[in-house]
Amino acid sequence: MMLRLQRHAPWIAAWIVASALGGLLIGQLEISRLEEAFENDVRGAYRLLNHRAGQHDALLSTLALLRSGNDPSRPEQRLQSVYPQVVSVQHRSTEAVWPQAHLVAAESESRKLGRPVLTEPAMSKGRYQLVMGADPTSYAVQIDVRGMVPWSEWPMAADASPVRLTLDHAGQSFVLQPGHTNPSNTAGWNFGFTQQLTSASQPFDMVAQRHVGWGELPWSQMASWSLLVAILLLAARALLRQRTDGQRAHELLRLGQVARLNTLGKLAAGMANDLNQPVAEMLTNTRIANRVLNEDPPDMLTGQLAVKDALRHAQRVSDVINRLRFVVSQPNKAARIEDVDLPALARRALHVLEPELRRHGIGARIELGGPEFSLRGDPGALEQIMHNLLLNAMQSLDQVQINDRRLTVHLAASGKHGHFIVRDTGPGMPIDVLPHVFEPFFTTREGGLGLGLSLSESMAHAMGGTLTAFNQTPHGAEFRLSLPLSLPH
User: Fold this and answer.
1) H-helix or E-strand containing 261?
2) What is the pLDDT of residues 161-217, one digit of tens each?
3) Which residues pair with 175 in a beta bridge?
4) Which among 33, 43, 149, 387 is least buried, having the fewest CB atoms inside 10 angstroms?
5) Domain count, the chain
6) How far apart are CA 247 and CA 77, in angstroms?
7) 377-412 per-residue burial string, b: 16 or more CB within 10 A, e: under 16
8) How far apart are CA 329 and CA 293, in angstroms?
């Protein structure tokens, strides 16, 4: 389970990072969209309120110009039918006196400024009053705050909008729409807008607030993005695995071909050496039998002995062929000796066998006992030796419980030599078997030819190195390939 998690960890990490980055981008885009919508809505509301405040100023200026205070029909009282936000209209002619003292002060200020002025607003009750001082008649108009809002043109649904919007003045506030904002809620994002109306007579601050909670983020889009990333990564992993498996298959095929060629070469050399003498004896005895049997009279006894001896040598040839025992007496003179990066080659060998290791449930790792180093050797022969030693360890580990299967490749340099060491936690080798493991055709495995280790030792000697075998304590085997280190350049 742990090995599987380790193999999948880079892909899982890539999925988490890509999902997180994509989710952040999607969330940020949605927050930006909501903020832009908030800005557009509140600016639209601000323009409408400014327009209505300007209407109120114009209305008072028009009443002052009409001088309708002495008109018994009181036309200003009909303003409510045209302007529903006008709650009441009061006027004072030259001879009259305002019934409230604050209206006297407001008229005085209005005359001084030459424009309407605000007097004692009751914003919490949704009312405020404007006074316009003029001759011969001054006016006081009371405005309903909610009525001044042109709801038919309002850019938001006042009851459903999440935007909280108020008109504030001198510590008083009137809520135009409640919104969904909770000032104590800090989890999420808060948008704000505060700006004073442009009318000098109605210097109200329009304050808008909008809270975006985590629940408003587009989680479905984020989940879809995460799923898409997972599908793309799975497809990429499948393609990469297909490519890697193809490379492994090609490499295993090449190694198999090299092994078969080496085996055939060794078989040919061994058979030529072992068959040369008995075949020569067979030829000699056959010629003798042919000569004595053609004499007149034929020498039957000598002929029979020659044929019998030829048969004995033929049996020997048969035994050689059946046993296929041979000893390589000539090293590989075609070896291509060069500097070889041993750690890189070791990693490649394990990479090629990774599917087999995984199938057998074997945990494999490389240990580097110091800085990386290079050896002098034939890369192809070295690769073949590594392949043989790793396969040999895998076959040994099949004999133990799956939880006990461990394979370690240890790389180290000492003196003038570098070492490629394969250690396994298998049953090890019996004492009587250990001295014979590198002999041709010696094997303890049913169906085995006993050529892999023999070939490996021969190739190691051909490169000026050694291949040795040991038993580990308390159990397991160790094979050590030693070759000369590369010379410093």
Assistant:
1) helix 219-293
2) 999 999 999 899 999 999 976 655 667 899 999 999 999 999 999 999 999 999 899
3) 166
4) 33
5) 3
6) 96
7) bbeebbbbbbbbbbebbbebbeebeeeebbbbbbbb
8) 40
Tell me which of 258, 288, 323 is where a domain ends: 323
- 146 phi and psi, to 5 degrees? -65, -35
Helix axes 219-293, 379-397, angle to 10 degrees: 100
Number of other residues whose CB lies within 10 A of the CB of residue 145: 20
**CA gap 110, 71 in Å, rounded:** 23
Domain-embedded: residue 130 = yes
Check residues 196 and 3 and name the one with the higher pLDDT. Answer: 196
Whether the pLDDT of residue 30 is over 60: the answer is yes
Kindly tell me if the per-residue pLDDT of 459 is higher than 70: yes
CA 236 distance to own-chain centroid: 11
Name 314's Cβ contacts closer than 8 Å, sequence gap at least 6.
278, 282
Residue of higher predicted confidence among 282 and 403 = 403
Residues facing residue 296 across a β-bridge: none
Cα(118)–Cα(201) distance, integer angstroms: 6
Residues near 489 by Cβ (< 8 Å), separated by ≥ 6? none
Give CA–CA dist 53/183, Å, rounded. Answer: 29
83-85-90-91 Cα dihedral, nearest 10 degrees: -40
pTM passes above 0.90: no
By residue range, what is the domain housing residue 294? 245-323
Q: Is-contact 385 423, C-beta < 8 A?
A: no
Q: β-pairing, 477-484 with 164-169?
A: unpaired
In one-letter notation, the amino acid at residue 48 is L
Q: Assign 426 to helix, strand or coil.
A: coil
Q: Under a CB-based contact definition with an 8 Å cutoff, are residues 141 and 178 in contact?
A: no
- Cα–Cα nearest to 163, from 179, 148, 176: 179
Q: Name which of 177, 195, 193, 230 is nearest 17 in CA terms.
A: 230
Backbone CA torsion sign across 304, 310, 312, 314: negative
- Closest to 346 measured CA to CA, from 329, 368, 316, 321: 368
Same domain, 291 and 368: no
Backbone phi, psi, residue 288, to 5° = -65, -45
Last residue of a domain, one of 271, 292, 323: 323
Q: Annotate 315-326 with b (16+ C-beta within 10 A) or e (fewer).
A: ebbeebeeebeb
pLDDT at 158 over 60: yes
Residues 6+ apart with CB under 8 A from 6: none
CB atoms within 10 A of CB 2: 7
Residue 364 is encoded by which pair of tokens? Answer: 């494999």
Q: Are residues 30 and 120 in the same domain?
A: yes
CA-to-CA distance for 66 and 230, rounded, in angstroms? 76
Together in a domain, 22 and 129: yes
Instruction: Return the number of other C-beta atoms located less than 10 Å from residue 79's C-beta.
Output: 17
